[in-house]
Write a structure and sequence with these properties.
heterotrimer, A alpha/beta (270), B mainly alpha (313), C alpha+beta (402), A: 270 residues, alpha/beta, Rossmann fold, elongated, C: 402 residues, alpha+beta, Transcription Regulator spoIIAA, 2 domains, 4-stranded mixed β-sheet, 22 strands
Chain lengths: 270, 313, 402
């Protein structure tokens, strides 16, 4: 469903702040699979997600969603194919507008915006039915400004909005990281439920090892702009949190293994 | 009484300015200074066209379109060329000063005995009164012509506001409002936020120019200086409107802007009647807007200080 | 809750003030486990100010007693209030209670405090020694030939280290060590954890070995080491030097069981048998063959180390003994297996019993070849240990097998 080939991006090239955020990354997601990207800070995991979302233009590489190369598409053009949930719970909704108005906008994601009334009785009924599923009692508050809701509620609604029209690809950028633990658990559970029920193809970035173990079918680990580990199918099933930590440890060890270490081992490792 | 009707009429005409500014300032949260230029643009275009014998309706429409053009240029400066919003507005406003002079060919055009959009209601009213030019309204003598202008402005403003209200409730209008709220969200919904900004500024300045057009027809002249300070007047009206109606739905907000403008004009009429020097008017308006902008924050921090000192005590 | 501890003779007098209930039991347990980790195994609890004891508190005491049982320690309670004593009696733990204040504590002020260091030396068998066999058919990084490997059996008196593969695993040559016939082996795959082969009944562990230092025999000395005010940890060079001086030998073999202050080491992550080229792998390819710990690792875990050390430049020269950069007069080779921490009993320890305990407990976390990292600036130093036991013996009769 998503195919990334040879994706590279260097920020601030040829300056002292040069960051090779992505180095020749290849990644293919099968339709209906749920993949999680984990990695240290600055490993390039969010950069990869943003490259797919179209926030910036990569230096090299081809991104294909559902067979269409979207390299030349702007961020809003990609929204036709891609649903997104952001880390900031306030980023996915318009605070001063009502719940119904926010959702109505998501009901035409990537489509034309005709000059007909947006929030009709019909639409409201449809919204109430689906919002009911969140079990947050929001169906009775559809006309309230969304800014009056908690971060967890807003993030749940953002998730609902991003998946209202079945996206070819759902991008989740640490979408539970800014929530309190209880809300985070609820939103994580909702994520799992929606992705499973709608058979969505999803790519999630997370800091939480626990989430990476529990939610997806596949875990991709990034380090220094490269994919260093890819656990899928059978491998994924046996992976536990300590294994992930071990892998991080191994990756870091490789990092510390420099030429002086080689010299050292040549002398002492017989 | 004539004075009051006059104030009401000017208030109604300028409420199109306030409503236009509502779109840029409140809906997409864009501090648009083009307004000072585009209101004059509306007036100058109308004056020239009417003097050239055009129908006042057609002239008003052209004024509206000219305003839209000016607004969209500001939008393009901002979105395509990444110029800061205030600077984009200043550039456009400055450019419009020369353009207005070019259009008019001189610094002002008097329009005596020309047709205006209120001609038809005037005729109707005169016919109905059997040729009388004045009538008694609850003991006051009122000029039928003034009354006709008042009513035609009222009908026009109500009609335009209603159309705008319906528009803002459509799918398109909804994303327009969201653009001022959360650009990232709007983009994630597949909307070209730059286009929305350009369109909003066009619509906003179109309404402002239409306001200028009607003002020129009512006053009977267009002047290259007439736009100076109009943005602040509009802002003052919006603030009064907000104070009147609070911050509920869109319909009420629009109605609030209209009422605010009328009330503001009445206050000015009264102040002038009481002997306020017209030259001080803009200073007083600016002081008022300053007070309105600063007061809420000031009171808040003041009450916080009291609260804090109590806590410490 | 407040916990105060005072060392009197071999006993630690603990005074507890407060309630031992569900909200304090974890804190109480952790405090006690820390005492045990510090080598305190005999406890007397003054419960005069312990006002309440809930079942969570009893569970905590049971946990501590269990831990103490593994090190033959003890815990007794005196001065208990009626409530606390009653609770303990009704729950069947009345035997923890002392009727009166222990005599030695009564006169505590009269007796001078003795040196609390558990450091000690035991002579196990004055005549014990070990024989050495060196197997160096394979030299890094030659191609591994079939003739390089030898199938070795490791009976109960064998202690060895080297590179080999369990006979059934084919050519998966990785680092291994043998302690008293117990084999710990690090499979040469990046993701895999160490495995082990145990001598069960008639089975004798067997390895295909391409390189090894192998000793057979028994140890003559046991040295118990623990930190004191001047010294917080013991480096590998110090311990190896101690082994040589205790055994008065040019070459010694030793087994160490100890709490880790930090290990520095490397291990194979790809079997040398897979190598196609004759030359040694260059940088950065070497990173796919060897893993280096990169920092001081496994702090607080338990290490089981086998090593052979010799005075450098003696007649006992050996290809597999490498001069220690931090003490160039010594040449040594050490492999370490890392187990989750468990406390060691004080006093004289039986190596066989300890081996059974460790190899039947949780599996080892890692196995590595210890490195003395004295690189300028970046150097991580030597591996070092906090407290533990070292069995050592003299190595005689050098016998090189080619």
């Amino acid at each position: 469903m998503l195919s990334i080939k040879g994706l590279s991006k260097t920020f601030f090239p040829n300056t002292i702040n040069e960051v090779k955020a992505l180095r020749n990354v290849d990644l293919t997601l099968e339709a209906g699979s749920f993949t999680c990207i984990i990695g240290t800070n600055g490993s390039g995991k969010s950069t990869l997600l943003n490259a797919v979302a179209g926030t910036f233009v990569p230096d090299n590489g081809v991104i294909t969603v559902d067979g269409t190369a979207i390299g030349g598409w702007t961020e809003y053009q990609r929204a036709k194919l891609i649903g997104r949930v952001f880390q900031n719970p306030f980023a996915g909704t318009a605070a001063e507008m009502s719940i119904a108005e926010n959702i109505v906008m998501a009901m035409r994601r990537g489509q034309s915006r005709p000059l007909t009334r947006a929030v009709t009785t019909q639409a409201k009924k449809e919204i109430a039915d689906k919002v009911c599923m969140l079990k947050m009692g929001l169906e009775d508050r559809l006309d309230n400004p969304i800014g009056t809701l908690s971060g967890g509620q807003r993030q749940a609604l953002t998730l609902l909005m991003a998946t209202w029209l079945k996206p070819k690809l759902l991008l989740l950028d640490e979408h539970t990281a800014a929530l309190d633990p209880k809300s985070a658990a609820k939103v994580a559970e909702l994520t799992r439920q929606i992705i499973r029920d709608e058979k969505l193809t999803a790519l999630m970035v997370t800091h939480s090892m626990q989430q990476a173990i529990e939610l997806p079918d596949r875990i991709v680990m990034m380090h220094r702009g490269q994919i260093v580990e890819d656990y899928q199918k059978e491998d994924k099933k046996r992976i536990r949190v300590p294994d992930l930590l071990d892998t991080f440890d191994r990756v870091q060890k490789k990092e510390l293994f420099d030429e002086s270490v080689m010299q050292l081992l040549a002398e002492q490792y017989v | 009484m004539n004075l009051i009707i006059g104030a009401f009429t000017i208030g109604l005409i300028l409420s199109l300015l306030s409503v236009g500014m509502l779109i840029s300032f409140k809906m997409i949260k864009f501090t648009d200074i083009t307004v000072d230029g585009s209101i004059t643009l509306g007036a100058s275009t109308t004056a020239v066209l009417i003097m050239a014998g055009w129908s006042p309706w057609l002239a008003s429409l052209v004024a509206f379109l000219a305003g839209m053009l000016a607004g969209s240029l500001t939008g393009i400066l901002y979105t395509k060329f990444k110029i800061q919003e205030i600077l984009a507005g200043i550039l456009m406003m400055t450019a419009l000063y020369s353009i207005n002079l070019r259009i008019m060919g001189r610094s002002n055009i008097p329009m005596l005995d020309t047709k205006t959009v209120s001609d038809m209601p005037e005729q109707l009213l005169l016919q109905a009164s059997g040729g009388e030019t004045k009538m008694l309204l609850s003991g006051w003598q009122v000029s039928l012509i003034d009354l006709a202008v008042f009513f035609s402005s009222l009908i026009l403003v109500v009609l335009i506001s209603w159309l705008l209200y319906r528009f803002l409730l459509t799918h398109f209008g909804t994303v327009l409002r969201a653009t001022g709220n959360n650009v990232q969200m709007v983009r994630a919904q597949g909307v070209n936020n730059n286009k929305m900004i350009i369109f909003s500024l066009a619509l906003s300045n179109g309404l402002v120019a239409l306001s200028g057009s009607l003002l020129a027809q009512y006053q009977g002249f267009a002047d290259v200086q007439m736009g100076i300070g109009m943005m602040v007047w509009g802002l003052a009206s919006i603030i009064i409107g907000e104070a009147l109606v609070g911050k509920p739905g869109i319909g009420v907000t629009i109605a609030g802007a209209i009422l605010g403008t009328i009330l503001f004009r009445l206050l000015i009429a009264i102040a002038l009647r009481w002997g306020l020097n017209p030259n001080d008017l803009k200073l007083v308006t600016a002081a008022f807007v300053f007070a309105a902008l600063v007061a809420p924050g000031f009171f808040k921090s003041y009450s916080q200080k009291i609260f804090k000192s109590r806590k410490h005590a | 809750m407040e916990i105060h501890a005072k060392k009197i003779n071999q006993q630690l007098l603990i005074t507890v003030n407060g309630r031992l209930d569900a909200s304090w039991s974890d804190y109480f347990t952790d405090a006690f486990l820390a005492f045990i980790r510090n080598g305190e195994h005999q406890f007397v609890l003054d419960a005069k100010a312990l006002s309440f004891l809930s079942s969570a508190g009893i569970r905590s005491l049971v946990r501590i007693t269990k831990e103490l049982r593994t090190v033959e320690g003890s815990m007794h309670i005196f001065n208990a209030t009626e409530f606390v004593a009653g609770t303990l009696r009704t729950t069947g733990f009345g035997d923890w209670l002392l009727d009166e204040i222990p005599a030695e504590l009564k006169h505590q002020n009269l007796q001078p405090e003795q040196n609390a260091l558990p450091e000690n030396l035991f002579l196990l068998d004055k005549n014990a020694s070990l024989s050495l066999k060196t197997h160096t058919n394979w030299k890094p990084w030659q191609l591994v030939k079939t003739t390089d490997s030898e199938t070795m059996q490791f009976p109960a008196d064998s202690y060895a280290l080297g590179i080999g593969s369990p006979s059934a695993s084919g050519k998966l040559f990785g680092d291994f060590m043998v302690v008293g016939g117990h084999v710990a082996y690090q499979s040469p795959e990046e993701k895999s954890r160490p495995d082990f082969l145990l001598p069960i009944e008639a089975y004798i562990p067997e390895m295909e070995v391409i390189q090894s230092l192998r000793t057979e025999g028994s140890f003559s000395h046991l040295w118990r080491f623990a930190p004191d005010a001047d010294k917080s940890a013991f480096t590998i060079a110090e311990l190896a030097g101690q082994a040589l001086s205790l055994t008065h030998a040019e070459m010694s073999a030793f087994v160490i069981l100890a709490e880790i202050d930090g290990l520095v080491g490397a291990h194979l992550i790809q079997s040398p048998a897979l190598r196609q080229a004759e030359n040694s792998p260059a940088f950065p390819e070497i990173r796919d063959w060897l893993s280096f710990s990169g920092e001081r690792v496994f702090v607080g875990e338990q290490a089981m180390i086998f090593g052979v050390v010799s005075q450098h430049n003696t007649t006992m020269n050996n290809d597999l003994l490498i001069p220690l950069p931090s003490m160039p007069t010594l040449a040594a080779h050490l492999h370490a297996a890392v187990f989750p921490y468990q406390p060691l009993q004080n006093g004289e320890l039986n190596l066989k019993q300890q081996l059974d305990k460790f190899f039947n407990g949780p599996p080892p976390k890692a196995l590595m070849h210890l490195i003395d990292d004295q690189r300028p600036e970046a150097g991580l130093g030597q591996s070092s240990l906090i407290r533990g036991a070292m069995w050592c013996g003299k190595v005689i009769g050098k016998e090189n097998k080619l």
